[in-house]
Amino acid sequence: MLHGRFDFAINLYNQTINHFRFPTYKLSDLLLTNPQYGANESGIERKSCAEPRYIRITDIDEFGILNSAIGVTAANIEEKYFLENNDIIIARSGATVGKSYIHKKDKFDYICFFAGYMIRFKVNPELILPDFLFIYTQLNPYKQWISAIQRTTGQPNINAEEYKSLKIPLPPKEIQQQIVDLYNHAVKEKQAKEQEAKALLDSIDNYLLKELWIELPENIRNERYFEVNVAELIGGRYDTIYYKDVYRRTLYVTEKFKTKLGNYITTINYGASVSNSYVECGIPFLRIKDLLPNEIKKNDIVFLPEEMKEQLLTSLVKKDDFLISRSGTIGVTAIVDEEFDNYAFGSFMIRFSTKNIDRDFLSYYINSTIGKLYFERNKIGAIQGNITIPTIKNLPIPDISIEKQSKISKYIQSVQTKAKQLQQEAMDTLEKAKREVERMIENG
Asked: What is the rounded radius of gyration, in angstroms, for the C-alpha atoms of the chain?
């Protein structure tokens, strides 16, 4: 238990809870059992949804929503870590300390179990609605408590005993239910707007291919075993992936393109090769994982030591440079804007001439189905695979006018703008609900 905490952050939090209009109770008084730490197992590939899913901190977003990916499982699975309906798990360490998730068993037709960096809480539903407690962990007062209570020396951490000391406002059951209904309605509105945004973004690929008169064949086989005529063997390529039907029948449409990406390239460099030599302040460094299609993530930027500047000169990027990932999710492309000028990069950096090419169009094309299949087919390496400079230069590019390119890119930009607007509206909907809940539990 916590005693004698008189620091400023704790004092500020205590002032906040003094303004609640309902009595507060320690979390320990609302639990059916003692909190439980999760399994200390390494995640391994989950090959099908029939296998139990191992839920980790990284599987949960900032709103406590589990992602829809197939996720991972573990070699050793113990029943004591199986999640039951309305179990709440909360992250106990790292940058995501305090992140929470409430498990709804009826949403899954498979077993879920949870990882060791999370703590399970089973609340007494006679005293508090589990959904109300989860909602409280999404509010500003809870986040204020997390900030105040976590140990900041080394890796942030809050243990089970500290979580048990968390004071929670406890309205009557009917008001708890009103809050749950209000919040869940906002979550549904948020998800509907996000689905609408996703549908818009998903439509971009079909639009682009249609504008380029590319019609992908139907009934593509993705077989494990297949025959290839000796006459079809190309340039000494004997690896099976190169001749899979999914690639042969989709990429034949690009054979009519006489122009190659390399015709427009003036400079192409390998990025910096570093071994996680990150420091608190120095040369900002973009990793491959910071690349999204047509976008660079703006958070979680790391830094390299200033003394590495000389060896990083050829990997410092400029506005309008193209960045292309060479491993992992290969071929992902984004254009550098002014914000990232003079950042170092860890993969391919490309500069183009402006002659007869619209940079935005080029980025959309490289990130399209055609680009993805081309790079996937031409990657080298049996396990993760990567792409080479010749592979990038040999990507077929459609021969269309700069005016046509510009028309396509402007339309796609308008779709993206609408999608981002919907995504922002989705965020605002939930934030508005959170503020309304806070007003319901706080005195005016």
From this structure: 26
Alpha-carbon gap, residue 133 to 88, rounded angstroms = 9
Position 425 pLDDT exceeds 60: yes
- Please report, for the chain, how many H helices and E strands are present, in that order: 10, 21
SS3 of residue 195 by DSSP: helix
Beta strands (DSSP E) in 170-277 are 259-260, 265-270
> Could you give phi then psi for residue 57, rounded to 5 degrees?
-55, -40
pLDDT of residue 202: 92
Residue 102's CB: how many other CB atoms inside 10 A?
Answer: 20
Residue 140 pLDDT > 90, yes or no? yes
Q: To 10 degrees, the CA torsion angle through 416, 350, 276, 285? A: -60
- What torsion, rounded to 10 degrees, do the Cα atoms 234, 238, 239, 242 define? 20
Using DSSP's 3-state secondary structure scheme, residue 442 falls into: strand
Q: Say what the pLDDT of residue 246 is.
A: 53
Residue 167 phi, psi (nearest 5):
-90, 130
Tokens of 57: 């901190």
Note the residue count of the chain: 444
- Comparing 14 with 389, the larger pLDDT belongs to 389
Q: Which tens digit of pLDDT belongs to each residue from 324-377? A: 998 878 899 999 999 999 998 888 999 987 777 899 999 999 999 888 888 887
| DSSP letters for 128-159 | S-HHHHHHHTTSHHHHHHHHHHSB-SSS-B--
Sequence-ordered list of residues with C-beta below 8 angstroms from that of 293, at least 6 positions apart, any chain: 332, 333, 334, 367
Side chain identity at 64, as an amino acid letter?
A: G
Q: Identify which of 131, 120, 143 has the alpha carbon closest to the alpha carbon of residue 33.
A: 120
CA distance 158 to 144: 13
Query: Are 22 and 160 contacting, i.e. CB atoms less than 8 angstroms apart?
Result: no
Of 180-189, 190-199, 222-231, 343-352, which gets the smallest average pLDDT? 222-231
- For residue 323, pLDDT over 90 is answered with yes
Neighbours of 193 (CB within 10 A): 21
Report the pLDDT averaged over residues 56-74: 90
> Three-state SS for 77?
coil
